[in-house]
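Researcher: I'd like a structural prediction for the single chain below. Treat it as a standalone chain; there are no partners to consider.
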Amino acid sequence: MEFISNQDRAQVLVQALPYIQQYSGKTIVIKYGGNAMIDDRLKDAVMTDIVLLSLIGVHVVLVHGGGPEISAMLKKVGKESRFVNGLRYTDEETMEIVQMVLAGKVNKDLVGLINRHGGRAVGLCGMDGGMIKAVRTTPDGADIGYVGEIIGVDTTIIKDSATNGYIPVISTVGVGEKGEVYNINADTAAASIAACLHAEKLLLMTDVRGLLRDKDDENSLISVVNVSEVNSLKRSGIISGGMIPKIDCCVEAVRRGVKRTHIIDGRIEHSILVELFSDQGIGTMFL
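Model: Treating it as a single chain, here is the predicted structure.
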């Protein structure tokens, strides 16, 4: 391990001070998924970052997915995972498993992990307090079962938790007007929650560096994108495939009042702190 002198440590803290002052008392929404959620070392780094932010007065809201865990549980019960246009086909039985895995095991594991790192977390799902209101979605007319589109977010329970010093950990299960339960895309949910909370920042943790000018060259990272440039980047093919829905979420959040949104590489330890507390940052910022 590289030795850091006490002088260097002090210098790091001094350089972080303006950022600590800037974010203290503000709300930051983090969408957590990908490798950072599976790799134990990365998981520990994320939890440490979140607890540190909370201790310096940042209101952190953690929104999580759990695709691999859902797929693993479906496999255990002998049910095949099906995807339509990148969205999980969710029949009634699959929805029961999604609810059980997301709002149950994954959510409570994360709550326990934050608490073990010295934080105070509370687990919530979109059904609690009618937080995430949704209707059934049929993209391009396709029936994909109990997959929901968000029509409203009631942030009362999130704000109450944060005001009382808790870190809300939210699983993205939504509720319909007749009590139906819907599977909600975690990126979309994080963007809606960030917008409704008037968050300072939304961070989407992914398994890529950010938006690359050349998808095969990790050194071609585009550090800053103005939302007005997004359509031309789509036309030129720079934004394509799986990045389209993620970037659409970033754009929606900015247009709805979130000051900055970021796509950051969850494969890098402490990427949250690097993004928030350094001049260069680490991923792609949308403003």
